[in-house]
């Protein structure tokens, strides 16, 4: 038993790999930021405000809490990824912490829903932006989304260096218009927003906490995507050092960006105007700020920012997700073709192609709202289990070198896991159909695992 544990430890901690290690710290930050910073920065602030009864102070507090929750979740991933710099991300951690079936259920859910659903949702959202400039039908939007998915998949099939370079360029490109709007609003804005935390009709502490939690759930969709860097850990240079650094810089920087961007909105738009816009169904507060500061050019700046943001998010997901399916196949519990890398470009070719096919099917079958709800709930379930993997693996592999350890352990792990669990339950109550889907699909994954596992044992 000790020999098995020793060989497993060596495999998990070794930096030798068939992949090419071509992603540095900036590349890692670009992957995180490229996936996390999407179009939501321009409109999710409206949902957060709505859920705290239009209280500006509580809205900013919700953004900060959402960022801190995400950061501590990211720190758990940083400890796991630095100690085990292998492809697959949370599939690997769940395998080792609990049982291979748990990791497979996570990967299977991402393979069937999470990865393709996110790619499809972003592709549809990106192409929808063009409706503001040219007449395009819903069918035309879907065809444009499919074309985008095919294009980015082909580029990713050419190797991680090219895909990472695209990610770096799109990251810088989309930050420029966002930062331009934000800093211009902060300096030009003359409104002094009321940031007191008491101007709500909610009186009891329990109701107030529940209200803030509901707003935090909305903010977490904007932070979605922070788990994806670990799936390419085997392609990061000096992962023991660079992976935690990229996670801390990426998530911490985005938390500051989101908070300041939403404060900048409050500096430009009077509170009465914000309330009137949200009440009328106009959620794009960021667009209104850009038009207020830059005039008619502002709409072009926002549209450019949204296009670049979603382009980077889509490319980042297409880059990261297939590495998870590769890890599942490497363990002998998935299609053999998924375990092979391209002889020249060293990328998991079959998983990339299959993900593109599934994404295209979802583009044709689902709308944007259905896709986003489906992805969030199913993803959070396994985020909770991955966070709990930290104490499990500390006990199971006490001698593994951990160059990075989560801060304030074990309190930080317990609180983060409890918060994510509460958010999963609340989200499932709000959308029971998607909640049921979030349970049925992993169970289907468990059945699939045991079928492959039986075949693998029969071949031995």
TrEMBL record:
The organism of origin for this protein: Peptoniphilus equinus
Membrane topology: Multi-pass membrane protein
Transmembrane segments: 23-46, 58-80, 111-130, 139-157, 169-189, 201-223, 243-265, 300-320, 345-365, 371-394, 406-429, 435-452
Keyword Cytoplasm: no
Keyword set includes Transmembrane helix: yes
One of the Pfam families matching this protein, by short name: AA_permease_2
Keywords: Membrane, Transmembrane, Transmembrane helix
Localization annotation: Membrane
Protein name: Amino acid permease
């Amino acid at each position: 038993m000790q020999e098995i544990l020793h060989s497993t430890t060596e495999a998990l901690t070794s930096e030798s790999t068939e992949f090419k290690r071509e992603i540095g710290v900036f590349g890692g930050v670009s992957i995180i930021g490229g996936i996390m910073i999407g179009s939501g920065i321009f409109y999710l602030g409206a949902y957060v405000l709505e859920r705290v009864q239009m209280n500006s102070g509580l809205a900013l507090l919700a953004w900060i809490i959402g960022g801190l929750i995400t950061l501590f979740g990211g720190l758990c991933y940083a400890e796991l990824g630095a100690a085990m710099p292998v492809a697959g991300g949370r599939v690997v951690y769940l395998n080792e912490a609990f049982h291979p079936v748990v990791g497979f259920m996570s990967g299977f859910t991402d393979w069937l829903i999470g990865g393709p659903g996110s790619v499809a949702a972003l592709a549809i959202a990106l192409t929808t932006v063009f409706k503001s400039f040219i007449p395009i039908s819903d069918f035309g939007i879907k065809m444009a989304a499919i074309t985008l998915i095919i294009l980015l998949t082909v580029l990713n099939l050419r190797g991680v260096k090219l895909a990472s370079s695209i990610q770096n360029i799109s990251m810088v490109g989309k930050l420029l218009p966002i930062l331009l709007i934000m800093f211009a609003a902060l300096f030009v804005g003359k409104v002094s927003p009321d940031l007191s935390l008491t101007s709500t009709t909610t009186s009891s502490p329990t109701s107030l906490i529940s209200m803030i939690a509901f707003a935090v759930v909305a903010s977490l969709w904007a932070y979605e995507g922070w788990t994806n860097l670990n799936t390419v850990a085997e392609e990061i240079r000096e992962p023991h050092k660079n992976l935690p650094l990229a996670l801390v810089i990426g998530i911490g920087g985005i938390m500051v960006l989101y908070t300041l961007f939403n404060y900048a909105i409050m500096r430009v738009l009077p509170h009465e105007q914000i309330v009137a816009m949200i009440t009328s169904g106009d959620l794009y507060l960021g667009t209104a700020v850009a038009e207020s500061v830059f005039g008619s050019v502002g709409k072009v700046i926002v549209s450019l920012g949204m296009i670049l943001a979603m382009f980077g998010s889509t490319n980042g997901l297409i880059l990261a997700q297939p590495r998870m399916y590769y890890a599942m196949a490497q363990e002998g519990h998935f299609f053999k073709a998924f375990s092979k890398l391209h002889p020249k470009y060293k990328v998991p070719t079959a998983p990339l192609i299959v993900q593109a096919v599934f994404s295209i099917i979802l583009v044709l079958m689902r709308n944007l709202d259905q896709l986003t709800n489906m992805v969030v709930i199913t993803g959070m379930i396994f985020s909770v289990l991955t966070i709990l993997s930290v104490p499990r693996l500390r006990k199971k592999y006490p001698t593994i070198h951990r160059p990075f350890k989560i801060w304030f352990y074990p309190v930080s792990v317990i609180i983060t896991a409890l918060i994510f669990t509460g958010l999963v339950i609340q989200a499932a109550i709000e959308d029971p159909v998607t909640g049921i889907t979030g349970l049925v699909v992993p169970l289907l994954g468990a059945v699939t695992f045991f079928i492959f596992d039986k075949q693998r044992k029969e071949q031995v």
